[in-house]
DNA sequence: GTCATCATTCACGCTTCACTGAAGGGTGGT
DNA sequence: ACCACCCTTCAGTGAAGCGTGAATGATGAC
């Protein structure tokens, strides 16, 4: 019988093609952005990523040929978006593995800001990323196909964090946004809900802000309680300041 | 501020390196085999995959440098194994995405055997793959680090399929094995448990064997009941023969 | 109509990577 | 001691991928 390595096998060929698309920093980051934060134009992407327009365009053309992104022309703008919300799962699996891998053999000491810091008025860093993934995993938050987020059916995870969904006011500002964390390459929670969650953690004395900066410190109380509220959150030693 | 694409960022660099390792048919298949079926020697791998020994060795050296596999020399054999069981999650996420992608735009018509066929005395194909992932997801089956499988705490999923865990006799043969499906690139269930599950499905009239072959046909009864037992199982039209 | 902006395409040079075939160490069997 | 086997390493060749810079199309503002 023929060997296992037969690139004519549709599934194998498809997996390889997918991995090849992800094996470039520009394409990977663009996909992460499109998946976590919704549609962007080419110029937005090339501006945010800091690469030239032709370079960005070439990579987007590849992604489009691979069926990972779609493009819609409106006037002289080309709006790109992730073709399927499922790609977020793949990206998250990769980022989580890489993250765990780094924890095993860290290449640089973990900075306090890696654990938690504020992004405007919500929590970012490892804390913010874990809040996001926990809320999504427990069904309290539901990512929509266009990058937006809506409340899910079971909001018990929110209640445990000390937030009452009924009090949220999304009239003047988006309820929740997926803000891609630049360090961890995973989305963290922004918007009204992000601010409320951080407020509840501060009020509960689980974390406290550092004076005159964006740093967040996990208190002893937080070290004791957060792992139960946020499964998967592993606090490096010394993170309580 | 610097752009998002900075390969000095440890997480980004790690994700890219990981994707690059997976972007080759030999490396990907080797990882799938090591992850699903446990340790293999170099010659076993090069024999099964059908590639030359130097080629296989070079790819394994790369995987070792990337920290994805470990090697242990015993005599003149080099036994390779997956460095972490977590890599299975990444591979499964990739294969699942590719699989869904192919369902959207199939490159060849689905053959009946793609849905279900026997592998010795257990179910393979899409049916077998779905059985495996369902049992693992529901905690009835627990993959161990070395590729072996053990019963989990909650075996209700097995009971629903018509198998009583107390009747399983694992003295003469392994209880359960993860047998990598060559078509779907995901593990399916083998061993005593695999045989029992297939027996229960046949006894319940959900599937029936085709005369004189390894094909399995999903009956009308199966079409009605299997999707509830195995979430995520999508039967292509015409699969009931 | 003219200009500015945005997106895409082309040609070119550069780098990186993977495969082959042969040779080199090590180990176990006889 | 010899041979058979397994694994690894080496040099050489060929192909593929990537980035730059300039040119081309298309659209909207004035």
UniProtKB/TrEMBL annotation, chains A, B:
The keyword DNA-binding applies. CDD domains: HTH_ARSR. This is Transcriptional regulator. Residues 7-102 form the HTH arsR-type domain. InterPro entries: ArsR-like_HTH, HTH_ArsR_DNA-bd_dom, Metal_resp_trans_reg, WH-like_DNA-bd_sf, WH_DNA-bd_sf. The lineage of its organism: Bacteria, Bacillati, Actinomycetota, Actinomycetes, Streptosporangiales. GO terms for molecular function: DNA binding; DNA-binding transcription factor activity. Keywords: DNA-binding, Transcription, Transcription regulation.
């Amino acid at each position: 019988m023929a060997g296992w390595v037969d690139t004519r096998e549709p599934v194998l060929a498809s997996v390889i093609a997918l991995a090849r698309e992800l094996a470039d920093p520009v394409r990977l980051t663009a996909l992460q952005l499109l998946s976590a934060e919704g549609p962007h134009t080419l110029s937005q992407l090339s501006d945010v990523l800091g690469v030239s327009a032709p370079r960005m365009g070439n990579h987007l053309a590849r992604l489009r040929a691979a069926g990972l992104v779609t493009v819609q022309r409106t006037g002289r703008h080309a709006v790109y978006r992730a073709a399927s919300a499922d790609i977020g799962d793949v990206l998250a699996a990769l980022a989580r593995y890489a993250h765990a891998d780094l924890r095993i053999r860290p290449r640089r000491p973990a900075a306090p800001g890696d654990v938690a810091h504020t992004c405007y008025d919500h929590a970012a860093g490892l804390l913010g990323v874990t809040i996001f993934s926990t809320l999504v995993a427990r069904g309290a938050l539901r990512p929509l196909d266009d990058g937006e987020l809506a409340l899910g059916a079971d909001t018990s995870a929110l209640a445990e964090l000390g937030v009452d969904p009924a009090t949220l006011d999304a009239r003047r500002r988006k309820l929740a946004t997926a803000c891609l964390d630049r360090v961890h390459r995973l989305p963290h929670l922004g918007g009204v809900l992000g601010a409320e969650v951080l407020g509840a953690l501060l009020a509960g004395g689980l974390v406290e802000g550092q004076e005159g900066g964006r740093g967040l410190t996990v208190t002893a109380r937080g070290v004791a309680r957060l792992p139960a509220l946020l499964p998967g959150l592993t606090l490096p030693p010394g993170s309580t300041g």
